[in-house]
Amino acid sequence: MEHFPVGPLQCNCVIVADPQTRSAFVVDPGDDVDRILAVLARHNLRVGGILATHAHIDHVGGLASLARRTGAPTLLHEADLPLYQALAEQARWLGVPVPDVGSIDRFVSDAQRLPCGRHHLRVLHTPGHTPGSISLVVDDERPLVLSGDTLFAGSIGRTDLWGGSLTDILHSIRTKLLTMEDEIAVLPGHGPATTIGTERRSNPFLVTPL
Question: How many CA atoms lie within 13 A of 135 on its CB side?
Fold first, then answer.
């Protein structure tokens, strides 16, 4: 796995690959497609899928361009399709150029397992930041959670944008993420990594009783 911030909002783009088969998923290609392609080329990886944890522009701005240049399918939760189709409005709101908008090839669903060579990514539908927000569990044997903009180190995703819900995001975190073991690492959509246990004990949004 390799991750690096992309775009002006510094979204964590993540490349997950099987080192034997060289099959890879690119998660949240928000921008800087040339940089993403360079990382893929350096590791001699073949992209099997391009996946967005949700459809905010900083996570999907490079989705269509990367798909066109790799031929890989794009994946998103269906509940975020209207948000993806409104990328032009998102760009105008932020005052940034409108990115390419393509079609979404496949919709993902809760508990779905996406094969990546000999391994897989498990989808968790974690709505709240957006209706179709997902988190991903990478490899159940040595789990790592890619939490998108649902859970951050010391915070949670904002819920004041279109389709956001504080009730939903707290329910998602408590029923889908905090049920995991304390030592499981979490890589959010922005900022530093953390662990389930750290957030359970000290995240100010989560330390209140259920």
Answer: 30
List the chain domain ranges.
2-202
Cα–Cα dist 42/177, whole Å = 33
- Where does 2-202 sit in CATH, by number? 3.60.15.10
pTM for the model: 0.96
Q: Where are the alpha helices (DSSP H) in 53-140?
A: 57-60, 63-70, 81-85, 87-94
C-alpha 51/C-alpha 39 separation (Å) is 17
Tell me the C-alpha distance between 90 and 79, whole Å. Answer: 17
Average pLDDT of the chain? 96
For every residue of 45-65, DSSP letters joined together read -EEEEEE-SS--HHHHTTHHH
Backbone angles phi, psi at 124, to 5 degrees: -120, 120
In sequence order, what are the residues at sequence separation of 6 or more whose Cβ sits closer than 8 angstroms to the Cβ of residue 117? Answer: 17, 18, 20, 21, 22, 23
Please enumerate in sequence order all residues whose Cβ is within 8 A of that of 181, keeping only pairs 6 or more positions apart, or say none: 196, 197
pLDDT tens per residue across span 169-202 = 999 999 999 999 999 999 999 999 999 999 999 9
